[in-house]
Amino acid sequence: MMMEKKPVIAIVGGGQLGLMIAREAHDLGADVAVLDPSPDAPAFAAADRHVVGAYDDIDALERLCEGSDVVTYEFENVPGEVLRHIDGKYNIKQGIAPLYDSQDRLREKANARIHGLRTPDFIPVPALDFMTPEDGTEAFHGNPEFPVPMTARDAASLDGKERRSQLKQAVKSLGMPCVLKTRTLGYDGHGQAVIREDSDIEEAADLLKVPCILEKFVDFDYEASVVMVSDGKKTIHFPIGMNIHTDGILDLSIVPAPGLSDNLVENGTGARIAGACEAFMKSCGYKGILAIELFIKGDDFYFNEMAPRPHNSGHYTIEGCSTNQYRELCRFLLGKPLEEPRLLAPTVMKNILGQDLDAAKAIVAESLEGAGPGVSVSDPDDVDNAFCGQAGPGVFVHLYGKSQSRPKRKMGHITFTPMTLGEFDRQWAGRFV
Ligand code: AMP
Questions:
Q1: Do the bridges between strand 70-73 and strand 8-12 make them parallel or antiparallel, or are there none, so unpaired?
Q2: Which residue has the least CA distance to atom 19 on ligand 1?
Q3: Which long-range contacts (C-beta less than 8 Å, at least 24 apart) are formed by 135-141?
């Protein structure tokens, strides 16, 4: 009897998100091919085939995509121009628009506004009369409210004095406090400076060696995120979590976000936020997965940024929900009907950065020694490498198997469920640095 060929999902990017996509893809009966520049990328361990190559290496991308049924990305800085080369030739089911729109903070925020989401006030820096219309920012074309911003060449041509003067002018027109951010390639708080007083301008102006955006500082109550998956007809969203960052990096996700839900069912504000985010996704015509990060202030909410890939704050869905973000992305990619997720119980996700790794390993080791209920790993040596298992009741440890650990590097995460923030603080917070 002929074996039916399994569908193949090609993933651009082999980090932990790729690893978790690969596991769910296998569960749904698909094979996975992964491209990553690093020979020991975490997702390679779960891939059926892998390619070591740079994201802008067209040959490597071709080798990844050949024989695939569908292509996705788990890393948002894949150069949009490079994906254009394979768009049409291979099935990038999510399209490249959400990726392109998210790669420039100015384009991203302008797009959010155009499609109905409120953002903090923002302006491009330097001022518009410094700019030339040649960087292909299509979202702005034909829209008089968002003239074409400056190019990298324009920015590089400014000397220190001009940078300071441009920034002063922008700060004056927007008002303090405000945040200066590089338009591209910023992440986890890199490439940003908060300006609270005139004396902050000098140092912040250094960022203007590349094009920037100046945003009004939002004195938010907390940060939250919504992960959605859409197949064009049906859109689902995962329960909204509150995100706590430390030094600009996600530390904890607490679900449900306090005040946004009542007995695990979203209340008025939560439903309003989810409704607005789903309407945004529909209005943009995006399909696939989209995570939106928000600032919550009383009953108001502001779009901060988006990512067209599974999101760190959605790790909790693996054990905390009836279906998870990776699985629903795979369902979309494989043309299967989406499932509406349900939160099973209050959940806390703790990111394990390099500085938390020893604590995480100790939690696993202790549970192995005690052989308590729910421990599901047989080989303690696993603890030094990739590890995915339960370390006691309601404690789910994921170590990604990255060969080098360093402070602030995302090495794993632990999901505690059922668990509230108060319980986490009393029982677990003291274990971490
Ligand atoms: P981002 O890279 O834009 O997500 O920014 C990193 C972090 O900086 C966010 O998670 C916020 O904690 C903070 N931040 C960014 N933009 C603003 C803003 N406009 N107002 C207040 N805080 C901000």
A1: parallel
A2: 217
A3: 137/104, 137/106, 137/107, 139/101, 139/107, 139/110, 139/111, 139/114, 140/107, 140/110
How confident is the model over 349-364, as a mean pLDDT? 94
What is the residue type of 170? A
Expressed in percent and rounded to 5, the helix, strand and coil fractions of the chain are 35, 25, 40
Q: How far is the CA of 120 from the centre of ligand 1 (A)?
A: 10
Residue 189 alpha carbon, nearest atom of ligand 1: 6
**C-alpha separations of 344 from 148, 192, 394 in Å:** 46, 37, 12
CA neighbor of 164 nearest in space, from 132, 130, 125, 191: 125
Helices 325-334 and 16-27: crossing angle in degrees, nearest 10, is 60
Look-up of token digits 């939160």: 343
Nearest protein Cα to ligand 1, atom 1 = 189
Q: Which helix (H) or strand (E) holds 357?
A: helix 357-370
Ligand 1: atom nearest CA of 177 is 20
Strand segments, DSSP code E, in 256-378 are 261-262, 265-266, 288-297, 300-307, 347-353
What is the best residue among 304, 305, 312, 313 to mutate for testing ligand 1's pocket, by most ligand atoms within 8 Å of CB? 304
* Strand bridging mode 8-12 / 31-36: parallel
Give percent above pLDDT 70 in the chain: 88
Between the alpha carbon of residue 413 and those of residues 208, 328, 380, 386, the distances in Å are 35, 20, 18, 12
Q: Which residues line ligand 1 (CB under 6 A)?
A: 120, 179, 186, 189, 215, 217-218, 223, 245, 248, 293, 304-305
Put simply, whether the predicted model's pTM sits higher than 0.85 gets the answer: yes
- Centre of ligand 1 to C-alpha 143, Å, is 26
Q: Which two tokens stand for residue 342?
A: 């349900």
| Between 419 and 161, the higher pLDDT residue | 419
Predicted local distance difference test score (pLDDT) of residue 370: 58
Predicted local distance difference test score (pLDDT) of residue 375:
45
Mean pLDDT of 118-136: 65
What confidence tens digit (pLDDT) does each residue in 58-70 have? 999 999 999 999 9
- The percent of residues in the chain predicted with pLDDT above 90, rounded, is 68
Cβ partners under 8 Å of residue 40, min gap 6: 402, 403
pLDDT at 155 (0 to 100): 67
